[in-house]
Amino acid sequence: MRKKANTLKTSSPENHSLENLQKIIETQIIGQKNLIENLLVSLLADGHVLIEGMPGLAKTTAAKAVAQGVRADFHRIQFTPDLLPSDLIGTEIYIHEKSNFTFRKGPLFNNILLADEINRAPAKVQSALLEAMEEKQITVGHHTYKLPDLYMVLATQNPIEQEGTYNLPEAQLDRFLMYIVVNYPTPEEERQIVELAENQHVKASTFQVTTQEEILAARGDVLKVPINSKLKDYVVSLITATRDPVKYDDVLAGWIAHGASPRATLALIRCAKALAWLRGDAYVTPHHIQTMALPILRHRILPSSEAEMENVERERIIKRLLEVVAVP
After folding, report:
1. Over the stretch 152-167, which tens digit does the pLDDT of each residue have?
2. What CATH number has the domain spanning 225-324?
3. pTM for the complete prediction?
4. CATH number of 13-198
5. Where are the beta strands (DSSP E) in the chain?
6. Rounded Cα–Cα distance for residues 268 and 249 (Å)
7. Which of 28, 76, 166, 258 is the most exposed place for a label (fewest CB within 10 A)?
């Protein structure tokens, strides 16, 4: 569905700063506009992102660019099979002069954490992220430490290398607001990438377009974006259709083994509002909901064995879902 031409526009200082950040990143990373927009939507919706794609498709570069544009603490950690939970959380160190232990915080305490190749670390390390991602706190012994208000985990993974990797458990996958798949650029975009690489020396090394305070203020504005009650019912219908697809379509029913939880309903509404705000639209439309459906539901529905045998991709399942559920 195309966005209505008469959709009202709205703007605020925070909207302009995020719009400028998006434009700057798009000049530095060619061919990944969808990835960049989804990263900013997740930042506005206070969620975490899992990015999957082949090597060399600017997954890490895009994540670093978003963090660089926000005046916030950023840390990148390369996940490896020998990583320990303490490498993320931190550890208690004995201070001889004070005759006591002091907790030294790990990378999880930064505002934005880039977990590169997250599926290369074992389950015990991956589980160390669960409390941080969901509760925004870390418990060490008898002490609980609060994480910053602006806190975001950007994780990447390679879809083709299976040796030495560990599949993320379903509980952790559900903690990610979005699951974004990055594809190859078009020939035209790749030609622009060549030009950009040749002019690397003129590209600014650092840039800061917005602040933590502006992001937090923008999140408040996002919550106020109006959404019609019929569109809320539409979102609920989309999610419930993944759980009981036989009521909507026999083909869809044969493709889905397990549907999405209410967490997906909340995520879809929140991200639709964030997308509308980021694009300067005054209210949520079906187009915003349908645009966000794929990254929100991709990791929250489990295809049936029949779908797997027929090589039916999740993208096709979600597209079918959008076709059979009536738009108000």
Report:
1. 999 988 877 666 577 7
2. 1.10.8.80
3. 0.88
4. 3.40.50.300
5. 49-53, 70-71, 74-78, 90-95, 100-105, 112-116, 137-140, 143-146, 152-157, 178-182, 210-211, 256-258, 302-303
6. 22
7. 258
